[in-house]
Amino acid sequence: MRTRLSTRADDAIEQLADTPAVRTATEQAASVVSKVIKPGAVKDALSGTPVGHPVHPVLVQATIGMLLSANVLDLVGERRAARRLLGLGVLSAAPSVAAGWSDWSDTMGKEARVGVIHAVTNATGVSLCAASYVRRLRGRRGGPALAALGSTMLGLGGWLGGHLSYAYGVGVDTTAFQAGPSDWTDVGPATLTEGTPLQVDADGVPVLLIKQRGRVYALADRCTHRGGPLSEGTFSEGCVECPWHGSTFDLASGDVVRGPATRPQPRFAVRERDGRFEVRRDETRALRTNPVGAG
To answer: Is the pLDDT of residue 286 over 70?
Structure first.
């Protein structure tokens, strides 16, 4: 029963995301957001680059927590406290919204369209809670009902946010399930031209090889942010810039130099042996090598 229900919900979202209205809204939103949120320090902060993870989910918890708690206070008759908490919850939505739109600006296709539905749903929920606050402030009835309806919409918006992350992988390190060889593995002849990137295959994982100042570096070629091919990026001063959204990584360490990426690029050890390049990855995580729960 639960499987059928979740499948129907997925199908409904897929169909809604393909409607002309949502497509048009997505195009209009992209035009506005691209002008407001530009690459740089502010976008990096909104993306969560300094802390190593997206900040939108964390900020949303504070907003939803306060607004849901206001409903509980309504149930126990603490209307004055509920009103104050509603006001704080509505105000706290501002940074959550900014971070969410920043993340959304780096999506495309159906992910972007579902993201718009997610945003509209949450905006409706917050607006209802704001209306509840205003009615209470003016001494009018109906405030608790509006807050309850607003919280219901936020719950639906939360489900959509989870769908974006867990069904579409938005915000997840795109290399999370790439293992790479733990033993030295031949990836081709050691004929690398200085400054010219090369994508090679290491046990099914695309790896970027680049020689700068006589040293050869090896990083996962798939950008951790949204999966862009780093081998097609720009190289300068010991760094590589992703061609898709401009995330910049240090070639030696894989560290994020500039966002919007939040996770470092996986590094591979590389050596030349008998005229061939060999690579290996020293660190592997359980999810990269075995299914969850595997014996």
So the answer is: no
Mean pLDDT of all residues in the chain? 91
Tokens coding 132: 């509840």
Q: How many Å apart are CA 19 and CA 50, to the nearest integer?
A: 37
**Measured distance CA(123)–CA(150) in Å, rounded:** 9
Bridge partners (DSSP) listed for residue 145? none
> What does the alpha-carbon distance between residue 43 and residue 152 come to, in Å, rounded to a whole number?
30
> Contact, 83 vs 136, CB < 8 A?
yes
**For residue 225, which of 23, 39, 60, 59 has the smallest C-alpha distance?**
39
Return phi, psi of residue 51, to 5°: -100, -5
Torsion over CA of 71, 77, 78 and 84, rounded to 10 degrees?
A: 40
Q: State in Å, rounded, how far the first CA of the chain is from the last one.
A: 29
H helices within the chain, ranges in order? 2-17, 20-36, 41-47, 56-75, 79-104, 109-137, 143-162, 286-289
DSSP-based three-state secondary structure for 247: coil
DSSP state of 51: G
Which CATH code, of 3.90.1310.10, 2.30.42.10, 2.60.120.20, 2.102.10.10, is assigned to 185-289? Answer: 2.102.10.10
Sign of CA dihedral 14, 15, 18, 24: negative
At 184 the pLDDT is 94
Laid out side by side, the sheet with 198-202 consists of 198-202, 205-212, 215-220
